[in-house]
């Protein structure tokens, strides 16, 4: 009897260790996946966010800042900052930023790109959301793997959450988990949480580098009214309206303009405009993967944007953006972001010829759809010396 | 303050993980044994900072 008991416990223990090792290894590999970045000819320098705020040094959110330009980093021309991965579960933003770093050439001005504005959020997925840990983009040289990520910083890096999150400095009360939301903690503070410190470091970057424009790349569920749009601070209303017209006229898709609500605090399009000299714009593309009524939450849904249940919601008039059997493929979403950035820079330069930002060699909407996002990703095995980085 | 609370939190996770292992060892009922191991899994994943 005793031997039988010992044998049973041994079998259970072995089965438990197997499950623990399997799941633990899966989570460990996902959290530590290295994503290669092959910087293009336009790269001047890669800095860390701690360059602007030493309080982030050694933390997971000490993100890389890719500086693109021509000649030196201290030009009198215009300067823009593009943020990918503020919400890591919105992959079109990260991928569009990736294509900028790997392809863009600046004829005038400087471009600062952060591929993972909240690196911690890229290392976890939503509890209970059944998210895939990663996804792959097909390229001419193979497949490149990216972390899926979540909307909020990983609880392993910032814990505990308060009962109510009180935003600094407005003291507006927000949902408790949004203290880990990169787009609710602007402008940040030096003695705050890790996510607040990250925003503070980026605010310092914007001020010290005299950034003129900040473009924060996002995606939205189709049941959310702020979608397929440019959200603009009041300082950037003219710029956003003109860019929207240019995009609709020249790029082959429509994008609207929303104005940043004055009473909604912590968001990039509100706080950057209020606390720095820069004009913040936030771009939204449709991502059915985020809709609450979605079906199976897998890599296919993430990359194709096809979901019969979200489509059914559309037939009942519950969506703010169209969805048909073509879905919202990742190439369409990445292309929309890139063409929007191109047109925003073009309009900015026309409005402010004394602070020009002229960028070339970035694929537009039609090109990304025709050739695929992966066509513009560089092979890390063939990267020139000093051009290969990891996120 | 947050670092101190985090430290206490991990102490608590370790304590409960130890309780589950102790109960698993003492149990004579196979269903309870399975239950203790299932509940133990997320505690260990957090304790080892895997999830």
Automatic annotation (TrEMBL), chain A:
Taxonomic superkingdom: Bacteria
Name of the featured protein: Succinylglutamate desuccinylase
Automatic annotation (TrEMBL), chain B:
Domain of life of the native organism: Bacteria
Keyword Transmembrane: yes
Keywords for the protein's UniProt record, in alphabetical order: Membrane, Transmembrane, Transmembrane helix
TM ranges: 7-24, 30-48
Protein name: Uncharacterized protein
Protein source organism: Candidatus Saccharicenans subterraneus
